[in-house]
Amino acid sequence: MDQYVHSFILKHQLIKSHQTLLVAVSGGPDSIALLHYLCAIRKTTPIHLIALSVNHNLRGEDAEEDLRYVEEVCRNWGVEFVGTSVDVNSYKIKTGQGTQEAARDLRYQFFEEMMHAYEADALAMGHHGDDQAETIMMQMVRSARPEAVQGIPVERPFACGRIIRPFLCISKEQINSYLQQHDLEARIDPSNAQTEYTRNAFRHYVLPFMKERNPRFHQHMQAWSERVRSERAYINEEAKKVLEAVHFSSNVEKFVQFSNQTFKTFPLALQRTAFHLILNYLYVKQNEDISYLHEEMFMNLLNDDKPNVSLDFPQGLKITRAYDEITFSFNEIKKEGGFHHHLQVGDRAYFPDGSWMDAEWSQTDEEEDHYTYVCDSHHVNFPLVVRTRQNGDRIRVRGMNGSKKVKDIFIDQKIPARLRDTWPIVTDQSGEVLWVVGLKKGGENPGFSSGPWLRLYYKNKADT
């Protein structure tokens, strides 16, 4: 086993001399074997080891004994130990998560804290080849999307370093043999035998059948995972070329827009991948409710003969096609959503979509950003007005001669037509347009005044 793991570590450059490695140790066979192996290689590869152990408070005294056992092992092997207890049941009530998901969240929160506390290079975990095979089979059952069936990564970024899994190249049987060879004891979690958990069912019923047909099944699955991840990384890079023709915006409301005709010039595989990259942007992280059926719905929309079609996706995401224009956006705004607010300095104006705007005096010429407007207060007639657009609205854009129609600004910035009638516009009492929020600024440049300055701050609902 040692040679397999050694070659695997070298191949993926998982461990280097003088690194600080945290090791997740539950007290079970896999993590005890991993900790022992890492202790052994300290003779040839100087590394600093810290063992981390978590009591989830789900198994009473047994879990406490697990924690004490890991601490004792670390003391005997000369390894620094950090243990903690977390309240999974309370966290479940707070978040509405299931037991396994809540336990994982709390466990990884602790791991992340320790990574930063020790400025560690990596967190080593004891997942092995059989775990990999189980994971891939479970992913295949749940999803038909290739990007969702990649298995457990050998390494991935985490906190200030990486998570590494040196044992993915070996089987559970090899780990058990290693424990016997070195006369190592481990704690056994009784829940591992409960087949009501999906993974345990695969472990007890499916994997033995596969390994009976091919004893090296775990190796095949690991090789398959590495190849799929490599090819998927390449496709993702190529798909970014598609995204160069896509307009991404987070102004007031996060949305994506592109030309259907241009999008369809790319190979189908890149179209599909770009679709999921767009969803990752909009959902922040891939939504679990998205399946290959949603993907097919989207591809059908691109090729629909009707000029105007739309799709409703999870969490209020709407995909619309208006002739050649494809738009992804959340929560379609009704036309009657217009507004008209007076805004005095020191006030806050609230808008129908849940966003707001603050007005205040500033004694410093503060740097502006996308959602902050600063202007010379001496050239503004109060009170301010925050409203939706009106026919004939024009703005004297800073740095430009003359004025420009607000309508043309919306067109230039590719703002969807459905958003234009609810877009916040700031004017002074005389009606001069000072700010088309998030797009263009007017009024006197703050650098031309000695103050005080008027400062407006817009809080986007997408960021709240």
UniProtKB/TrEMBL annotation:
Q: SUPFAM superfamilies, per this entry?
A: Adenine nucleotide alpha hydrolases-like, MesJ substrate recognition domain-like, PheT/TilS domain
Query: Which top EC class is given?
Result: ligase
- Catalyzed reactions: cytidine(34) in tRNA(Ile2) + L-lysine + ATP = lysidine(34) in tRNA(Ile2) + AMP + diphosphate + H(+)
Question: One biological process GO term for this chain?
Answer: tRNA modification
Any idea which positions bind ATP?
26-31
Where in or outside the cell it occurs: the entry states: Cytoplasm
Q: Which family is it part of?
A: Belongs to the tRNA(Ile)-lysidine synthase family.
The entry's protein name is tRNA(Ile)-lysidine synthase
**Organism field:** Halobacillus dabanensis
